[in-house]
Amino acid sequence: MCTTGGDPDAGPGPAQLGVIGAIPTSREGGEEGPGRPRSPAYLRLLLTLLLPAALFNSYDGELRAVLLSQLKDAFHVGTAAVGIANIPIGAGQFIAFFVVLAADRIGRRPILMWSILGYTACTTLSAVSWNLWSFAAFQFGTQVFIGAEFGVAVTLLAEEVPPAHRGRYLSWLLLVSPLGAVLAGVLVAVGFLHNPIGWRMFFLLAAVPLLVVAVARRKLQESEAYLHARAARASSPRRSAREAVVSSVAVFARATRLRVSAVGGIAFVQGLGSAAAVGWWTYYAEHERHFGTGTAGAFFAAAALVSVLGYLWCGRMMDRIGRRPTAVVYVLAAVVCAVLTFQVTDRWVMLPFLIGTAFFGVGIAPVLSAFATELFPTTIRAQASAWIRNGFGNTGSVLGPALVGILGASAAPLHSIGVAVSALVAISVLAVPVIVWAIPETKAAQLDEAEANAEAGADGQRSGFVS
């Protein structure tokens, strides 16, 4: 979602965190990496083939948000049931965690080839759901595949792109994500719901482009960093089942335990608040502030579109002032804007705060992705990303919407969706001290400056914004 903006050749790329792996992945100069440098043409192709991972990661999730009232009416269920249904849907991301882990064993390319086919099948089946729980089952499948797709896409891009451009490429990948939300909101705003099969058409719409991308992905090459790691592993004895289990929690070894726990905690509280706000705003606007469906869709699309600028600015600030100060600014601004969005009553007063919530709350994704991929060695980078995004982050994203439905129903303790969302969003402030004291600054570091830095980072002091 975010691009760095400005001169594409200016400044160091954001993903240069100096902690990562024993396997060098930078290819500048041609001799530093494990293989020959990728050509600019291939890197552009790689980005193009990975962009759908971000686009449909957003489109599918935001469809549930903008169509919440229609789904509730179609399946004849209450507010609490809709909230609870988010638990099995979100559980798909936990399964995706294990799929992403497999990328460290079988490679990045096979996961990306099969995940898009699985996602296409499940999102198409969502259109034929006959009740809330069949819909939840199919959406569970979409979350398994899109979670694996997105997690591995970020890892592959981080490994293939040289440090000077890595942040820019990651930002472009993430920049596309809010466009999925924009598309969902625009379709509602222009009356696409009035098609012959209603909300079901929104899910069928994604099938054709996804199949085209699945065919085009045959041109993907395997990550050279992975191939280098696999070659090194081939000379090692085959692992036992016990060793395989132990290796799945390798990120919690002493050298990286603090970092994965810290970044995971940030991902949890950020997911808790942002998923609650995004998942329930349209329903809140329609039922507690009496917006028309078209107006709510237009506001949602406008906010999602502005979030693109949040990504752009995030990418630029990451490279200029560093990861930590950028993350702190985004977290605090997102909390203030989100709470006010769900507390003000006038729609035109609400709109700028809704836009601010999207700009900061959604636009923070590039710096969180940098934390999750750049702080770990190549041999466990996909595993670390999986634990952080699919484990910690998804737990927050599952609990947030579920708790809003349970606590904010008319007969529930808080009696209001707006109050429930505001309470959960406020918890995100807890990320600030973690960012300041537990995350090292990695603005200009190379991915291959790793294990020594990881060891030092485990014991080093984290004071101020600059390490």
What is the compact description of this entry?
With 467 residues, the chain is an all-alpha fold. Helix content is 72%, strand content 0%. Helix 4 packs antiparallel against helix 5 (132-160), helix 13 packs antiparallel against helix 14 (323-341) and helix 14 packs antiparallel against helix 15 (347-362).
How would you portray this structure in words?
It is a single chain. It is built from 20 helices and no strands. The protein is mainly alpha-helical. The protein has one domain: Up-down Bundle (Growth Hormone, Chain: A). Helix 5 packs antiparallel against helix 17 (378-408) and helix 7 (177-189) runs antiparallel to helix 13. The protein starts with 39 loop residues before the first helix and ends in an 8-residue tail after the last helix. The model is unreliable at 1-34 and 457-467 (pLDDT under 50).
Element order, helices and strands?
A: HHHHHHHHHHHHHHHHHHHH
Task: Tell me the span between the first and last alpha carbons.
Answer: 27 Å
Secondary-structure-based class equals mainly alpha
Number of helices: 20
Query: Judging by the overall fold, what is the CATH architecture?
Result: Up-down Bundle
Largest sheet: none
Give the CATH superfamily: MFS general substrate transporter like domains
Kindly estimate the percentage of residues that lie in beta strands according to DSSP: under 5%
| CATH-assigned fold name | Growth Hormone, Chain: A
**CATH class value:** Mainly Alpha
